[in-house]
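User: New here, any thoughts?
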Amino acid sequence: MEHSLQPAQADNDGSRLTQGRLTQSKTLLGVLACYFLVNLLVRLALPHGLELDEAEQTYFSQWLLAGYSSQPPFYNWLEYAAVHGLGMSLATLSLLKNLLLFSTYLFYWLAARQVLTDKRLAIVAALGLLTIPQVAFEAQRDLSHTVAAMFGAALFLFALLRLLSRPSFASFMLFGLATGIGGITKYNFAVVPIAAGIAVLSDREMRSRILDWRIVPAGMLALAIVTPHAFWLINNFEAAGGHTMKKLVNDETGFLVSLVDGFGSLALSTLGFIALTLVIFAAVFREHVGAVLRARSPWTRLVGRMLGLCVGLIVLMILFAGLENVRDRWLAPILLAVPLYLALKVDAAHIPALPGIRRLWGVAGVIMVLIPLILYGRVASSPFTGKYGYVNIPFAAFATLVAEKAAGANTIVVASDGQLGGNIRFNLPDQPVLTPRPPLGLPPQPLLEFDRVVLVWRNSDGSTPAPLQAIFSTYLNGEDITAAPREDGVVAFPYAWGHPGDQYRFAYAVIDLPKGAAPTP
């Protein structure tokens, strides 16, 4: 009889061992590290054409400025440091993004550990981020400033919850650091600390923890971090804010239509952001959904109030600022706390956590397999579907031609758009590259200081580009360049991983500038 029970006993021991590993911190961090390494390797395996955000960051990495465009400069500064420290390569670009994403999950997990009674549920909170499409998939596909804002939001949550649970001078200074960093990641991040401040101050017990003399040096640290960019923003507010406002506000619509559009986009984007997470959490804790919904604790009240206030602030922006285009990815830093809130609800319900943790690991495993496969498959299928993405565009082949045209003179390349300019810069890292609209903080760089200008342009769909004057006439006139091109042309190259015969077209023009044409300072 004893012999017949030994296999069952061994199975139970193995099951307990497996379940124990699923609740260990090193398992979570190890799996996440491997997952982001796989995503990095997938990006390296794909063609090396840069996506929109990748190209923009590469273009801006030529300069270290207090501001660049319609977004704060935190990611730009990191990109500048990475490129100038590690060299220009796709590995450098992808490594930076995946390190930021891994750090987002890490600080989110640490934030959950500050306030959860059952520390195992911190794994639930961290894995919950994988259930948000904008965080799990879109961030890998092509985002930069939003990735930085998600990192800033996770760091802020960790600092806030650490301060409230274990106030000390170090935790206050960490809070100031996190607030300052978040403030220079993306402008919509400001909603998070405002909502958090109102939520904390409206709670008597929490209020007493944060209204402390140590909040003064914390605020000074945050202010010191944001001040360089704040001064830049004051001087460039119209130009920097105009691009963002065009995305969010349509001046041509009436008030009622604006309200309908604003509330409609908020509802749809919020639903698109949280729906899958709610469904998955309901499935993995299906036996206890009612208990979880009813559960309350001081921490669920705080985080729930924060989320509600975040939505409330957006509602006020719709009512009084004319906001009418709320995008789901715009909500990424603002609603990032949703999985944490759900984990806190599970913790407050005092239900058996292990079955739900085990199921959520299964869901997370599927997601971590699917995302790299989708990222790879959507490009690998291009020859069969005829649908080419930015990574398929043969920028490298065109950059080789540009290098030939630029050789032998002090040359500057002027690209018609930022993505083309970024890709030229990526493939020719020692070649100065500009666009007709350079970064807002860049000092004037007259073209007449160079010996040669190579103008490059294209149509985004790869069709035959328009003539030179249709693209660059205003720009060249503004630069006092009247010389005719000594060479121009339209060239075509096959798509990377494309169907034979499918080609993408670029145009170029070479202008030699007269010696000594630069104006006297």
